[in-house]
């Protein structure tokens, strides 16, 4: 290796290696990584180089792409490249529609929550803000029923790093700003350290949620339950059309007839061959029997 090659290995990611990694990311996770993301990927790999005490991008690329060598670094690499942005009560009209339309209808037509357990899936749950929001909304709705309301939430993500944070259920105070004050008082516990204000989700929310690692590219999601409602928001924007169509059809195989799928406000299922009917902006339903 000449001096120029050595410096390129340590100073940045070459276009050729970026292309190799972007192809690998697409193969492993279905995520598109255009050349415009090269700077972002370079910065995130730089952190992995420091963590592993490596001096060369070349060395790291070869490690990740070698199935005999990468071991658990594959998980760390996927964690590093996935984007995880989320908030409590993000896109609030979805939660209003859930509480005002979806839940009453599922109770009436399918006995969900009353005659049997209501099953909700937060797909691509990131650091947990969405499933904890769902838990608050569902518990509040259940209390209006005047009887015990049985509901469970499955929360999945590709990244084990964000799942660990989600399962801990501990957040900085500013993260819970969007949560209405009565719900904060009811469902969250504040720590007593004024220098590092944190809140922890209460046990009544945590007991409703099961966190699990899941890759949308897997042929079989291994879910035993049939699902009433799926929230998969701001995730399919990272996939191309064939991949999105395949994922949505796999979702539909887990949805009960009459069940709902919520996607993000910047997403659409238009022109996809999927058995869903749009019932509101970014909200779809699997027709009943």
Molecular structure report:
With 289 residues, the protein is α/β, with parallel strands linked by helices. It folds into two domains: 3-81, Chemotaxis receptor methyltransferase CheR, N-terminal domain (Chemotaxis Receptor Methyltransferase Cher, domain 1, Orthogonal Bundle); 92-285, Rossmann fold (3-Layer(aba) Sandwich), CATH 3.40.50. The protein contains eleven helices and ten strands. Strands 6-2-1-7-8-10-9 form a seven-stranded mixed beta sheet. α11 links the parallel β7 (227-231) and β8 (255-262). α2 runs parallel beside α4 (57-65), α3 (38-52) packs antiparallel against α5 and α6 crosses α7 (129-144). The protein is globular and about 60 Å long.
Strand order within the widest beta sheet: 6-2-1-7-8-10-9
Determine the mean pLDDT. 87
CATH level-four homologous superfamily name of the largest domain:
Vaccinia Virus protein VP39
Rounded to the nearest angstrom, the radius of gyration is: 21 Å
Structural class: alpha/beta
Our estimate of the beta-strand percent is 15-25%
- Which spans have pLDDT < 50 for at least 5 consecutive residues? 1-10
Named CATH architecture of the largest domain: 3-Layer(aba) Sandwich
Tell me the distance between the termini. 66 Å
Which fold does the CATH topology of the largest domain refer to?
Rossmann fold
Q: Helix and strand succession?
A: HHHHHHEHEHEHEEHEEHEEE
């Amino acid at each position: 290796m000449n001096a120029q090659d050595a410096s390129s290995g340590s100073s940045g990611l070459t276009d050729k290696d970026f292309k190799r990694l972007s192809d690998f990311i697409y193969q492993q996770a279905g995520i598109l990584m255009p050349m415009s993301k090269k700077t972002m990927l370079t910065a995130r790999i730089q952190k992995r180089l420091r963590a592993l005490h490596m001096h060369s991008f070349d060395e790291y690329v070869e490690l990740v792409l070698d199935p005999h060598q990468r071991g658990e670094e594959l998980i760390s690499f996927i964690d590093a490249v996935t984007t995880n942005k989320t908030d409590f009560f993000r896109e609030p009209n979805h939660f209003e529609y859930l509480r005002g339309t979806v839940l009453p209808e599922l109770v009436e037509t399918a006995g969900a929550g009353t005659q049997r357990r209501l099953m909700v899936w937060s797909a691509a749950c990131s650091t947990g803000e969405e499933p904890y929001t769902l838990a608050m909304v569902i518990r509040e709705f259940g209390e209006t029923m005047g009887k015990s309301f049985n509901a469970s939430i499955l929360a999945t993500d590709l990244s084990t790093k964000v799942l660990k944070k989600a399962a801990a259920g501990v957040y900085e105070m500013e993260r819970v700003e969007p949560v209405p004050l009565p719900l904060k008082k009811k469902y969250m516990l504040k720590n007593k350290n004024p220098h590092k204000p944190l809140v922890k989700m209460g046990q009544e929310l945590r007991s409703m949620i099961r966190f699990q690692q899941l890759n949308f590219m897997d042929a079989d999601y291994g879910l035993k339950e049939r699902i009433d409602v799926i929230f998969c928001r701001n995730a399919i924007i990272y996939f191309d059309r064939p991949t999105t169509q395949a994922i949505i059809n796999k979702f539909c195989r887990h949805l009960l007839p009459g069940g709902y799928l919520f996607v993000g406000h910047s997403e659409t299922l238009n022109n996809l061959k999927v058995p869903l009917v749009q019932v509101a902006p970014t909200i779809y339903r699997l027709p009943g029997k």
